[in-house]
Amino acid sequence: MSSLSERLSQIRDKEYTPAQPTRTLSQRVGTAGEAESRQVDALADLKNRLHASLLERLGPRLYSSDMQPHELEGAVRETVLALLEAESLPLSTSDRTRLIQEVADDILGHGPLEPLLRDAEVSEIIVNGPDRVYVERGGKLQRTDVTFDSEDHLRRIIEKIVARVGRRVDESSPMVDARLPDGSRVNAVIPPIALDGSSLTIRKFAIDPFTADDLVAFGTFTDDVRTLLESAVNGRLNILISGGTGSGKTTTLNVLSSFIPADERIVTIEDAAELQLQQDHVVRLESRPANIEGRGQVAIRDLVRNALRMRPDRIIVGEVRDAAALDMLQAMNTGHDGSLTTVHANTPRDALSRIETMCLMSGIELPSRSIREQIGSAIHLIVQQARLRDGSRRITHITEVVGMEGELVTTQDLFTYDYRGSEGAGGILVPTGIRPTFIDDLRARNLPLPAFYTSVTF
Asked: CATH topology of 111-207 equal to that of 212-454?
């Protein structure tokens, strides 16, 4: 029997080949992930080749006005299918279908955003770079799994959107406001201003515009408030809609404009046309930025002044944000009663302060008292809108501008929002019991009023 030392010596002298170590789970997953990544890259390369080949093959037909949309879509899909047949990359049926859809969306629509634009539940789309896309559903932001192939892909979609409305976006003009064909509002910011990649924000509008009945159903306002606002519009009161970003000002402006009689001439003025008026006699004006040479700009203020020469019965300014506020006040004070506009402000009192500040931006040396007198006589009613913490949008104040008292513009709240113990949709807009000064004028016009304004004991 050999000793222990002899056996150890035999083991040392024996040629030894170590066994291959078993791969860990993380290593196996890593390998699978690398394979999946290579497949994704191959699909992206194939998609780019298809896109370039499609542009080369169809050329001007893509922008021909002679082709109907369904004919163009059919031609694009047939061409993509033919190009795919010429490729040697093996694809599953699902990959092939998805690839054809994505290329068609890039050429005909808005690329990866197209499914989100078709989703009726999505009210806003926010793109923070190629791989971070968020949507708003029910007033809440959610991150999606939608991505762009690259920064160039995202830039291509942005340039396509802004080119449709005659705008441009590049390094010399890195910020732009635009709109989609359905009126949805678009804002884009690109590098070098946007540090982490191009940013795109799309505020969608419903295919069927909301009506006053819809806003009552949503709880935005009550039946009494609807009656008062409808009579105020028909009674040709000048109304200012105030609120923060995303509070629903444009929707409320659309609803109030629907109360305007059909036989009146309306001129709308906007940075990017988004109002959805239902009347026939409407002239829509849109501002224009300067061209690459710094010329050709048409500002909101220019359009307001020009609108006065167009024999309007009503002037609707989508939003006042600069010296155009002074021209808007002068229009309201020179026979264009019943005008409507919006402004960014958190309270009715803040809205009046902002209007005064913007008037001072005009460069015309006017004393503050003179501006406040114009505000007090031009604006009759302020509708304050807010977006609550639960995402719901509510009218929180209906405030009458009474006039001047000393050096101040005086106001009185006609309706205020009762939160019912929590800042959410459980609250309701309730009357304060104050009698508006314009009630007698509306009654003289035989316009309907809320029941508590017509009671004997009021």
From this structure: no
User: 180, 186 in Cβ contact below 8 A?
Assistant: yes
Return the exposure string of 64-98: e unless at least 16 CB atoms fall within 10 Å of the residue's CB, then b: eeeeeeeebeebbbebbeebbeeeeeeeeeeeeee
Residue ranges per domain, the chain? 39-108, 111-207, 212-454
CA angle centred on 48, ends 47 and 50, rounded to 5°: 65
Q: What distance in Å separates the CA atoms of residue 232 and residue 238, rounded to the nearest whole number?
A: 8
Q: Can you give the pLDDT at residue 256?
A: 94
What pLDDT was estimated at residue 58?
Answer: 65
Q: Assess contact for 218 and 359: CB atoms under 8 A.
A: no
Are the beta carbons of 130 and 197 closer than 8 angstroms? yes
Rounding to the nearest 10 degrees, give the CA dihedral for residues 178, 183, 185, 189: -30
Distance CA 146, CA 364 (A): 50
Distance CA 270, CA 319 (A): 7
Region for 403 from its dihedrals, namely left if φ exceeds 0, alpha if ψ lies in -120 to 50, beta otherwise: left
> What's the predicted TM-score (pTM) here?
0.75
Sequential DSSP letters for 169-203: -BTTB-EEEEE-TT--EEEEE-TTTSTTS-EEEEE
Fold of domain 111-207? Beta-Lactamase (3.30.450)
Question: Would you call 437 helix, strand, or coil by DSSP?
Answer: coil
Task: Tell me the chain's radius of gyration from C-alpha atoms.
Answer: 31
- Whether residue 31 is predicted with pLDDT greater than 80 in this model: the reply is no
What are the tens digits of pLDDT across the range 235-279? 999 999 999 988 889 889 999 999 999 999 999 998 877 788 888
Say how far apart CA 151 and CA 154 lie, in whole Å: 5
Out of 21-30, 43-52, 262-271, 447-456, least confident range: 21-30
CATH topology of domain 212-454: Rossmann fold (3.40.50)
